[in-house]
Model the fold of this input.
Amino acid sequence: MNSDLGPLRRLVTTHDATGKAILKSDDFLNGQVTDQGLEAAPIWVTESVPSKDNNLDVDGAERPTPGEFGIISPNGTNCMFTDLAPGQTTYWHRTSSVDHNILIHGKLALMLEDGIETLLENPGDVVIQRGTMHAWRNPGERWTRWVTVLVDAEPAKAALKAGSEDDEKKEE
Done:
């Protein structure tokens, strides 16, 4: 892990044999380097909605995410965190999902196709991403961290109309 933010603490609850709520695990998750200056890791992945996880003995962070970009769980959800180094920008991308992005630490700029960047700088700021082409940029001097819950969704019809030209955008 290269991020100076350190690992993310994750607590998972369950039930004991009598049905009483208990803590199953209290652990730390390290980001996996996915690109220079970008680290990410799943926190919990479900295989379906509604999820059957309340009655399974599983660790959702160990589930594969075989969908787009390796972050979508078909018919399910993926709660993950991402750390981005100062001055770094992610590649342009679009997924067939509804993404709930919550800033945890640092500054983060949402970049959209219209050329406008929107700055998030208050922990708890939220962006709901609805199948749009976008990228993220860290304009700050320190690492930034955000948590995303990706919910599998039908492809955005507007994106289908735009054609594959948009989907060929990569790094800028």
